[in-house]
Structures are given as C-alpha cells and as structure tokens.
Design goal:
With about 525 residues, the protein is an alpha+beta fold. It contains 16 helices and 9 strands. A 4-stranded antiparallel beta sheet has the order 3-4-5-6, with helices on one face. The chain has a 3-stranded antiparallel beta sheet with strand order 8-7-9, with helices on one face. Strands 1-2 form a two-stranded antiparallel ribbon. The radius of gyration is 40 Å and the shape is elongated. The chain starts with a strand and ends with a helix.
C-alpha cells in the first residue's frame, strides 16, 4: 500500500492509496509540484551562498545579483501558487459536475432544482431539515432531496445528511470526497496562512476540497531562502484589521432584509393555502423576495471583491506602521525652510537699511565739503545729489549713479509671487506642526463610557482617544455625561479656555467671561454686553 505523508502545524497526516481517488490524485500532483519546488529552493540557496561568498563582488554587487535571483524566484513562487490553486479548483469543478449529473441537465431539471433549492434555503433548523428529508425520500422527490442534502452538508445537519446518504450512497460518497478532505494537508508547518478554499461549478453545493488542513497552498516563505528581515520594533504588536465600509454595511443590511423575508415565506404560503392571503399578495411577497435576493447577491459580490482586494492583516498593519514612522511626512523640514525664508527676509531688510544709511551718510559728507546738489564738475564728471526724504537719496557722478531703495517689499513680492499667487489668506508657519500628529498614536489610549445619550451616541457606547480629542472626552466626564474606564484625562482647568480675550477686570465676576461652558447661554452673553455698554 502506497502512502504519502505531509506535515501540518499540529500533526502529521498520512494519505493512502486506498483513500478517495480524487483526494489521492490531488495530493499526488501537489506533492510532485512541491518536490520540484523544494529542489528549486535548494538550488536557490546554493546560488545565494555562492554570491555571498564571492570575493570578487562588492556589497552592492552582491545585493544586485541577489535581487535579480529573488525577482526570478518571486515569479516562480507566484506561478507555483497559481498552479496549486488550479489543481484544487479544477478537481472541485469536476466533482461538482459529476454531482449535478445525478439531478439532470435538462431545462425542466434545472428549473425544478432551482425551486427545490429555494425551499431548502428557507429551512433554518436541523430538526425540520430531517423531517423534510424523510418526506422527500419517502415520496421519491429526488430533486428536493438533493437540494436539501446540499443544505445539510453546508450547515452540518447530520441527521438529514445521514438519511440521504443511506438512500444515495454513491452521491454521498462523491460529495464526501470533497468535505472529508479537510483533515489532510500538504503544507509545511512554517508556511503563513493563505486561503486556498475554492467553490466552483454550480452554486449551492458549497463543497470544499482542501489539501491543506489550514488551507495553505505554496507560500512565498516556503519557496524563499532569503534571510528573514530583522524584527522592527516599530511594527505593530497586534495585527488586527476590521473592514466596516459602505459596501460591507450594505451587504450586511441586504442579507438581513433577505433573511427577514425568507423567514416570512412559510407563513405567507400557509396563509395563501388556507385562503387568508390573496394570490396578488403572495405574488407581491415573492417579488419582494426575489428582489431582495438580487440585492443581497449584488451587495455580497461587491463586499467580497472589496475584501479580496484588501491586503492581509500583516501587510496592512506593517504598511500603517511604516506610515507612522516615515520621516518624509515630518513637516520639520518645511518649518526649517520657512524659518530660513524669514531669516533671509530679515537679512534682506537689514542689508537694505545699512545701504540706505551709507548713502545718506555720503550725501551729508559731500554737502559738508560744500558740494552743491548741482553744478560741480570733477574731471569732466558732473556731481548731482538728490535727497528728498520719502523718495530716497541719489548720488550721480557722471554716468554712474547710486540710488537708495526705500523698502524691499516690492522685490519680495516679485520673488514670492509665484509661490503666493494662490494664497487666499496669511497663515503662520508655526501651524505646520499640526499637519503631522502621528505622535499622538503612541500616547496611552483613554476610553470613556457614555452615561447619557449625547451627539447621536447611545448610553453605554465607548469612545476613545483614537477618534476623539482627549479634552473632549474629559469634558464629557466632568459634565457627567460619561465615566472614565481606561487611561488618563486632563483636569478641567487644563482644557477650558477663554474664547474672547479682553479686559475682564471691570466685570463683577468671571461668570461674564464667555467660555466653553457658557458660550451658548444667551442670558449671560446679553448681560455681559449690557454691562460693557454701561461702563
């Protein structure tokens, strides 16, 4: 007897040639592929070692050669993973087609089977499933029995499944070829989890053929021999992601609506049979049910596609960790540049002032020598002095001239016009620090539980500093709207501030200072205004 043994994360699993033909076929093909992959992995390891030990290569040369090998290796890994998934998917498709052959392929068979599926999907508990299965087998309703068997396999209703298997051993054996395979594995224990379950063929069977107990196909780690990257302390310690998007919410709501309508179906049909419901009302219910199914299917497909496009928890969490630590996002360089611009402007103004003062000094010195503003010629060059206060000073000797610059504002405007032409307001550069508050993510989390309904939130809702400012949570606690359950919050004096700063010494008490607590108190505001005018 031939056996194949594979190692899982928890145990060793042996596949024998006496097991299911489909299981042995899939396991044999994947084992052969992984043997090839292992040999390729060993060759890759030897090539990497040769590069690392090559004395003729620099460190950069070694990195470049290793990167080239890794690029080729990455393509191979992707191809092997795709091939393994194809082996599993194709086998499931083959099995499901064989299963469907027991129902039939004619248009009448298909329509009857769809109706039977609708009836089976409306059954929600194992006891009723067993009762309906017994009746279907007794009346030789093969279509309903097959549809209900699919439902029983999906929901793990053992009584209904065993009843069908007793009458239809061939079908049961064929379907269990898929479902019983969930206990075998061909994945090495060190592989990361990677979903390979495949549902193919006619929808409704929900059968899964696994050749991996943890559902692991060939993984990049299995085929890679690169030295693992050192652990980064800034990686998130707990990789948890949760997708609550519009599409996910829509899919959940559509499924709830479909479930509500399906739960009413039996009652509606019973009422129609007893004459308590008109045919029009029954048709209207069926129309609503069919529309709800279409909506649920469309919403589910959209949500599944969104979930499929989402990276793994580790990938997403690591990307967020890198984002938090990315120095390129730090606005410090912009702040430094803005300071240098300010310093340059100051230096420009100081240099211009120094030069203007020097021109004024020369005007005074020349006049002290008795030189008139006009009329004196030195070596055939006429001396011309102009000094008219706000217009600045000018000294011309022949064709040469020195003129003061009253201010440099116009020159600054010309220099900065391209950069400031789209500005709608003047903003202090110090505010740039608020464009990067990633450091807050490293602060201890504070959580409060609402004791009053506030801001659309219900009593008992938990709010944290992940989504709310710490001062806002503190105000809720101090106002009696919430209770602190984790972390620290500031004292009231640390977050309260005066919104309108002014001279309050003439006011009778601090109640008339408009603060966060009384900003919406019309009586206090009116009294403060009246008091100000009386003064």
């Amino acid at each position: 007897m031939t056996t194949m043994q594979f190692r899982d994360t928890t145990n060793n699993v042996v596949i024998r040639d006496t097991d299911s033909e489909a299981l042995v076929d899939v396991a044999t093909r994947i084992k052969a592929q992984r043997d090839t992959a292992r040999a390729s992995s060993n060759a890759h390891t030897r090539a990497i070692n040769e590069i690392n030990n090559d004395p003729t290569l620099s460190e950069q040369g070694k990195e470049e050669r290793a990167a080239e090998l890794e690029a080729t290796r990455s393509t191979q890994r992707k191809s092997w993973i795709a091939d393994e998934k194809a082996i599993i998917k194709n086998k499931i498709t083959e099995l499901e087609r064989r299963l469907d052959g027991f129902v039939g392929y004619s248009s009448e068979n298909i329509m009857a089977f769809r109706d039977a599926q609708d009836r089976a999907e409306n059954i929600g508990d194992p006891e009723k499933a067993a009762t309906v299965m017994a009746r279907a087998l007794r009346t030789n309703d093969r279509t309903l029995a097959h549809a209900l068997y699919r439902r029983a396999v999906e929901q793990r209703w053992e009584d209904a499944r065993r009843a069908f298997a007793a009458d239809n051993p061939a079908v049961a054996q064929l379907s269990m070829t898929c479902t019983s395979s969930t206990n075998c594995t061909t994945a090495p224990s060190h592989e990361p989890s990677h979903t390979c379950d495949t549902q193919a063929g006619v929808p409704g069977w929900g059968l899964r053929l696994r050749v991996s107990g943890a559902c692991r196909p060939l993984s990049p780690t299995f085929f890679s021999t690169r030295t693992p990257k050192p652990h980064r302390s800034n990686r998130m310690k707990k990789h948890t992601i949760q997708l609550e998007s519009v599409k996910a919410t829509a899919a959940r709501e559509a499924a709830d609506e479909l479930h509500r309508l399906e739960s009413r179906t039996e009652t509606v049909r019973a009422a129609a049979l007893t004459g308590n419901l008109t045919a029009h009302d029954l048709a209207a219910h069926n129309d609503q049910l069919n529309l709800a199914k279409l909506r649920a299917e469309a919403a589910s497909e959209a949500a599944d596609a969104e979930q499929h496009n989402l990276g793994t928890a580790n990938t997403v969490a690591d990307a967020i960790a890198e984002f938090i630590e990315d120095p390129a996002l730090d606005p410090t360089a912009i702040l430094d540049a803005a300071e240098r611009v300010q310093e340059a402007i100051t230096q420009l103004e100081e240099a211009n002032t120094t030069r203007n003062e020097a021109i004024t000094t020369w005007v005074k010195r020349l006049r002290q020598l008795g030189i008139p503003d006009r009329g004196l010629t030195v070596n055939d060059d006429e001396v011309h002095i102009i000094a008219n206060g706000t217009g600045g000073s000018s000294i011309a000797i022949g064709a040469g001239r020195v003129t003061s610059v009253p201010n440099v504002a116009g020159y600054l405007r010309h220099i900065t016009q391209r950069a400031t032409s789209r500005a709608t307001m003047s903003i202090d550069p110090v505010g740039l620090s608020s464009t990067d508050t990633r450091s807050r993510m490293r602060e201890d989390i504070a959580s409060v539980r609402l004791t009053k309904a506030i801001g659309g939130r219900s009593i008992g809702d938990v709010l944290t500093t992940r989504t709310h400012a710490r001062s806002v949570l503190a105000q809720m606690v101090h106002n009696g709207s919430a209770e602190l359950i984790e972390g620290d919050i500031p004292e009231r004096s640390e977050y309260e501030r005066t919104l309108f700063v002014g001279d309050t010494s003439r006011l009778p008490d601090t109640q008339h200072v408009t603060t966060i607590r009384n900003v919406n108190d019309d009586a206090i505001v009116a009294a403060a205004v009246t008091k100000a005018f009386e003064a």
